[in-house]
Structure formats: structure tokens, C-alpha cells
Amino acid sequence: MVATLRSRCVFLGAPGAGKGTQAKKVAEGARLAHISTGDMLRAQVAAGTALGLEAKGYMDAGKLVPDQLIIAMVKARIAEPDAAHAWILDGFPRTLAQAEALDKSLSGASALSHVIAFAVPEAVLVGRLSGRRTCGSCGAIWHIESNPTRVAGVCDACGGALVHRSDDRPEAITKRLEVYRSQTAPLLAYYRDRGLLREVDANRPPEVVFQELLQRMR
Ligand code: AP5
């Protein structure tokens, strides 16, 4: 059990850096809202909403969903009661326009506490993404080699069926890494210049990364 953290934090990192794995664990223990734009979009796709239908093509191709759609979705989510005091933004912002919109919508006591940058070499990311499987029911994240379930294809946590994300195929992975380098990596300097950036070596076992995050998020 982790003590309650009153922080408003961004997890910034390339696809496969471990943002979702860590955000779920920290949020659960520390009673923070976990706001994952990827999970929110996948829920919209599964529900067949207008936003989901529009987003799906971008996601499957490994491209970013247009800023105006994402910004509106995140602003609405942050305004919900469970996100009143503390949250982790996982996968947002991803462009300069999104970072600026976030700055504008937060101020004073509700401003960002810090930004955690997950550093992992690109060759490691490809292996993590290709082998990832996620539970279609509870969202638990697994890996066929480094974190396998007891029975292949079945979630240990809830018995749900595991899914191979459509954007974890080789062509989409290549595109997502390229998009990260060109559109998201510049945010490292943006937040470093504002004194908000805390870098974590995320190429270590998940439990070691988790313990460091708890220290860095205080
Ligand atoms: P999203 O779902 O956010 O994908 P992502 O950022 O590409 O991140 P991932 O979920 O792939 O990786 P992760 O860092 O969470 O890693 P994980 O913990 O799962 O976005 C998907 C799409 O939605 C985007 O491409 C875009 O189209 C759209 N989208 C979302 N947000 C958007 C935005 N703001 N603007 C525009 N479009 C947006 O771990 C990966 C694997 O590694 C797992 O198998 C795990 O078990 C393993 N692993 C984790 N940690 C470790 C470790 N320490 N050691 C070994 N293995 C590990």
C-alpha cells in the first residue's frame, strides 16, 4: 500500500516505455485518477462512438489523433470529480499544442506538479511492444516473454481473453516510434525549461522503476 500522493503528474515516454504498467500500479495504491488517453480512445472505439470511429484509423496506422479531439476529451475528463485533486496523465500531452492547451486549462493550485520522463532504448521498446498482450476485460498488461500469464491468452487477474493490440504490429510500431521522435520528444525540452522534468531510467525491472517513481512523485 502506498501513501496518498497529491500530485498532478504527466507520464511522458515513447510507446512501450512502461507508462501504462506503472500508472495503473501507482494510481491504485496512491488513490490518484489514472487518465490514459489511449485507454479512453480504445473504449470509444469499442463502443462505436463517433469519436471512436474517427480515431480508429489514426490509431491503427500509428498516427496521432488530431489535437482538437484529444484536448476536448482530456479537459472533460479532468473536470470529473475523481480527478479534482490528483491524477496521472498517461499518454497526454503528446504535441506542443496539447502541452500548451494543458497549461492554459490548469492554473494556481491545480497546476502540474511534475512530468516524469521514462527513458528506454528504442531496441528494447520494439521487443516490449511486439510481445505485449492486454486483457480485453480488466485492462491488465502482460508480455509473452517477460511477464506471461499462467495460461497463454487468458488473464491471470480476471480470466478475460488477452488481446494483441492492432497498433502493436510491426508497421504501426515503426510509425509510432517515428511519431514519438518528431512530435512528442520535443516536450522533454519544453518541460525541462519549465523546471518540471524528472527523468527515470525505465529500462529496469518494473518493481525497481515503481519504487523510484514513488520517490520522484513526492
Ligand atoms: P497509447 O495507448 O497511449 O499508446 P503509447 O503511448 O504508444 O503507449 P503504450 O500503451 O504503447 O506503452 P506504455 O508506455 O503504456 O507501455 P506498457 O506499460 O503498456 O496510445 C495509443 C494510440 O492512441 C496512439 O498511437 C494515438 O493514435 C492515440 N493517442 C493516445 N493519446 C494520444 C494523444 N495524446 N494525442 C493523439 N493521439 C493519441 O508496457 C509495454 C510492454 O512492456 C508490456 O508488455 C509490459 O508488460 C512491458 N513492460 C512494462 N514495463 C516494463 C519493464 N520495466 N521491464 C520489462 N517489460 C516491461
List descriptors.
218 residues; Rossmann fold; five-stranded parallel β-sheet; three-stranded antiparallel β-sheet; 8 strands; binds BIS(adenosine)-5'-pentaphosphate
Write the layout of secondary structure elements.
Blueprint: E1 8-13, H1 19-30, E2 33-36, H2 37-47, H3 50-60, H4 67-78, E3 87-90, H5 96-105, E4 114-119, H6 122-130, E5 132-135, E6 141-143, E7 162-163, H7 170-184, H8 186-193, E8 197-201, H9 206-216
Parallel strand pairs: 1-3, 1-4, 2-3, 4-8
Antiparallel strand pairs: 5-6, 5-7
Helix pairs in contact: 1-9, 2-3, 4-5, 6-7
Task: Provide structural commentary.
45% of the residues lie in helices and 16% in strands. It has helices spanning 19-30, 37-47, 50-60, 67-78, 96-105, 122-130, 170-184, 186-193, 206-216, and strands at residues 8-13, 33-36, 87-90, 114-119, 132-135, 141-143, 162-163, 197-201. Strands 2-3-1-4-8 form a 5-stranded parallel sheet, with helices on both faces. The two termini are 15 Å apart. The chain binds BIS(adenosine)-5'-pentaphosphate. BIS(adenosine)-5'-pentaphosphate (AP5) binds next to helix 1, helix 2, helix 3, helix 6 and strand 6.
Shape: globular
Kindly report how far apart the N and C termini lie.
15 Å
**Helical stretch tally:** 9
Count of DSSP strands = 8
Name the poorly predicted regions.
Answer: none
The H-level CATH homologous superfamily of one domain, spelled out, is P-loop containing nucleotide triphosphate hydrolases
Largest sheet entry: 5 strands, parallel
Strand order of the largest sheet: 2-3-1-4-8
Radius of gyration: 17 Å
**CATH fold annotation of one domain:** Rossmann fold
